[in-house]
């Protein structure tokens, strides 16, 4: 049986999952980012195997092909750089994969480079699983039940994988087209809209209308915004769904106390005071744990807010950091520690250590046939061997202070800068983001 459930915020989606999965032993729950999977894994512990799409694709391919399947998250960036040198064009490969441009010649280049490096990225591992299942439909795994969360943020490639799994197993798709956020990865709310409301959809449509998370004030405000947008001719194609308040004595009392949403415009220096005042008011009223998310325009503003809030006595202040897509020398060396002849490892360290012209020569010379390590000069190979030896010694705890500082210099790691940032964060009470109660600050860009 195929079902699609449209569920707004706080309408009991996770509770529904538990009821659907209850009493079944062989089940699978899928979402698309680690943070969502971590939350679901806790909620559905003991009821279902909970995986990201790329994690599931990796394990399925490894199991079905009996081969070692390794991931390198920055692979698409590496191959994009290769194309700039080998094809003299800049190609963003991810959209080609996201949108199933299977016959595009550019993907042939990507496939050749991927095989040469013997690694998968987060996107092409899903692509590989889809292509494998399309060729071997008899080997698509079967489950007693599959649940798919946040379906509004799936792209065509991810939908292809879900459709293949749905051929063998009962499936429930859950999401909300009003919450679609990930269009940067070619995700489209049109998929869930088509499955829910399409004339020929094989999916039975359902909705969860009652929100138990928010007060009546917030529910009414949300419906007012949606109604006003529709009057202006916006939200065309949106799934029509009720969003209703779930009667609750506690929430009724909260609504009576806070009967309107507030918008305040203040000077930048006043923002920490406003936040502190509101947090203290909430703490005084609730006398229990709670968390607050603050979104600022830039990282600089986040740091400034965190510093000021720390001075006001808030200890649990966390900053999120975004990972740089550029592979580092340490990334390459880490791969070589596991496999000294890895083409990907040698390619990454070569780009880090060689002059651009020399790296380009090595890349062209290697092609997809020659081991990349053989295209690197002896001096660089000797240097890499020395770095690997020092990393092994450091892992064993045998490097002294001076040797460690020298290693940092060779790895282009500014130990003083990193230490200064760490010490500054400690003194300002700023810690890495964690799953605990407190203030979590994120920059919008």
Report on the architecture of this protein.
- It is a single chain.
- With 445 residues, this protein is an alpha/beta fold.
- Among the domains are: 2-208, P-loop containing nucleotide triphosphate hydrolases (Rossmann fold), CATH 3.40.50; 329-411, no CATH class.
- 50% of the residues lie in helices and 11% in strands.
- It has 19 helices and twelve strands.
- The protein has a six-stranded parallel β-sheet, sandwiched between helices. Strands 9-12-10-11 form a four-stranded parallel β-sheet. It has a two-stranded parallel ribbon with strand order 7-8.
- Helix 10 (216-231) links the parallel strand 7 and strand 8 (244-245).
- Helix 4 (75-86) crosses helix 6, helix 14 (329-338) runs antiparallel to helix 15 and helix 17 packs across helix 18 (401-410).
- The chain is globular, with a radius of gyration of 26 Å.
- The model is unreliable at 432-438 (pLDDT under 50).
Itemize the secondary structure elements and their pairings:
Layout: E1 2-7, H1 13-21, E2 27-31, H2 34-43, E3 49-52, H3 53-65, H4 75-86, H5 93-98, H6 105-117, H7 122-135, E4 145-148, H8 156-166, E5 171-175, H9 190-197, E6 204-208, E7 210-211, H10 216-231, E8 244-245, H11 249-257, H12 271-286, E9 292-296, H13 299-311, E10 317-319, H14 329-338, H15 343-353, H16 356-366, H17 378-395, H18 401-410, H19 415-428, E11 430-432, E12 439-443
Parallel strand pairs: 1-5, 1-6, 2-3, 2-4, 4-5, 7-8, 9-12, 10-11, 10-12
Helix pairs in contact: 3-7, 4-6, 7-8, 14-15, 14-17, 17-18
